[in-house]
From TrEMBL:
Protein name: Purine/pyrimidine permease
Keyword annotations from UniProtKB, A to Z: Cell membrane, Membrane, Transmembrane, Transmembrane helix, Transport
Compositionally biased tracts (Low complexity): 439-454
Membrane topology term: Multi-pass membrane protein
Lineage: Bacteria, Bacillati, Actinomycetota, Actinomycetes, Kitasatosporales
InterPro entries, per database record: NCS2, Xan_ur_permease
Protein family: Belongs to the nucleobase:cation symporter-2 (NCS2) (TC 2.A.40) family.
Length: 454
């Protein structure tokens, strides 16, 4: 008997495309928002504290970030033409990208940092036709070096939120930051599920309460009423400097390896057969376009996040319409004036304590990536990692080392992330081909299953 083909309209929807009733969709979407809200909030306060932004500007930046997170979740979940993976993704400001944004802002000014974001997003769009070639440049060894150096550099930046620009901290500020870290740790250890995933946010709330009740700090929400609308070009017209933008340009290329891993993992979790050559460019296009918008509103690069994939596994709900619902909620929260203006009053030492936790975790992610690289045996992986980390740490340990060099060389070599990443890429390409016991760095794509987002 000949099988009769089932019309496409009558085929059962895949789990990722299944519609969820509104009464179930709302609580599931709220759960996704709770799982990711700490990242945009802590990122905004790290930027605001480092750049000494007033409360009103902080509230406006928080509104912009939450709106972009919501728009990104909608774009990735629903997809438009070849933009967005149509997978249950949410979008966040990248922690590592924010670190590089702040580094550029401190060394060259915020307008140059804004221009660097626009250049990096444009570069990501431009290289997508060469995706399979570019992604091979960033195996786990290179990614591990990059993320570890970013985490180390940002721990120093976060510490300055506690100590102040001169590096001399008041005892009460240090104590408040330590209590914030302790509260974050307690929440992570004692709580479970979604509440554990919001431990950073809980730590910030606890630190703020301690500051107000003990006098260690003050809580001063931003003044104003009406909608906390994002400010267009809050740092002024962007300045474009290719040399100054190198840290973010290099990072935008490394994200292709991470996007590959996230897309494959999310496809498998959602019950869809992974097709990286089709889906990864779509996810990357959405990342790049939302990042372009973010650059115009004062943020760094926006990235898709794997934080919410675990919720899909835990609940068994794989529908992309749930994360689309989360996107709608994020847009609403971004426009909620009382929320953004109240959050803008969190004490700086509390933000510093929370940021220390966030960026220490990024450094550990780099260590985990290096563990997956081939650093043992007769190969040259350990030597490559050692020399790359040395080049990356030298500017941090000896800031005046390249003071006598030309400006362009000082910008490249003086950025630990750029110097370390370029060293890792070059040595992997050179030694990987000629070193003993190595198959070469271009033999295959990096394993996509366990690439964390930085």
């Amino acid at each position: 008997m000949t099988d009769i083909p089932v019309p496409a309209a009558t085929r059962p929807a895949e789990p990722v495309d299944a519609r969820v009733p509104l009464r179930r969709l709302v609580p599931l979407a709220v759960q996704h928002v709770l799982a990711m809200i700490a990242a945009p909030v802590s990122t905004v306060f790290l930027v605001a504290g480092t750049l000494r932004m007033p409360p009103g500007a902080t509230a406006s930046l928080l509104s912009a970030v939450l709106l972009l997170c919501g728009a990104g979740a909608l774009l990735q979940s629903l997809g438009v033409w070849r933009i967005g993976g149509r997978l249950p993704f949410v979008m966040l400001p990248g922690g590592a990208a924010t670190a590089l944004f702040l580094q550029i802002a401190q060394e060259h000014g915020a307008p140059t940092a804004t221009g660097s974001v626009l250049l990096a997003a444009a570069l990501l769009l431009a290289v997508l036709p060469l995706y399979t070639r570019v992604v091979r440049l960033f195996p786990p060894l290179v990614m591990g070096v990059t993320v570890l150096l970013i985490g180390i550099a940002m721990i120093r930046v976060a510490a300055r939120l506690v100590t102040g620009p001169d590096g001399t901290g008041e005892p009460r500020a240090v104590l408040l930051a330590a209590l914030t870290v302790a509260a974050t740790l307690a929440a992570y250890v004692l709580l479970r599920g979604v509440w554990r995933q919001t431990s950073v946010l809980i730590g910030m709330a606890a630190g703020t309460v301690v500051a107000v009740t003990t006098g260690l700090g003050s809580f001063a929400p931003a003044a104003g009423d009406g909608f906390a609308l994002p400010a267009f070009l809050p740092f002024g017209p962007p300045r474009f400097d290719l040399v100054a933008a190198l840290p973010l340009l290099v990072f935008s290329l490394t994200t292709l390896a991470e996007i590959t891993g996230q897309t494959v993992l999310n496809s498998e979790t959602a019950g869809r057969t992974p097709v990286p050559e089709r889906d990864v460019p779509r996810v990357a296009r959405a990342d790049a376009l939302v990042s372009l918008a973010g650059g115009l509103f004062g943020t760094s690069l926006m990235v898709t996040s794997a934080e919410n994939i675990g919720i899909g596994r835990l609940t068994g709900v794989r529908s992309r319409f749930v994360t689309a619902g989360a996107g709608v909620l994020l847009v609403v929260v971004g426009l909620a004036t009382p929320v953004s203006r109240a959050l803008a009053g969190i004490p700086e030492a509390v933000v510093g304590g929370s940021s220390l936790v966030v960026y220490a975790v990024i450094a550990v992610m780099g260590v985990e990536m290096l563990r997956r690289a081939d650093l043992s045996g007769p190969g040259t992986g350990s030597l490559t990692a050692a020399l790359a980390l040395t080049m990356g740490l030298l500017p941090l340990l000896s800031p005046q080392l390249y003071a006598g060099f030309p400006d362009w060389a000082r910008t490249i070599l003086g950025s630990g992330v750029v110097a370390g990443t370029l060293t890792a890429v070059l040595l992997t390409a050179l030694l990987g081909r000629s070193g003993p016991g190595r198959a070469g760095p271009r033999s295959r794509l990096p394993s996509p299953r366990r690439q964390p987002r930085s």
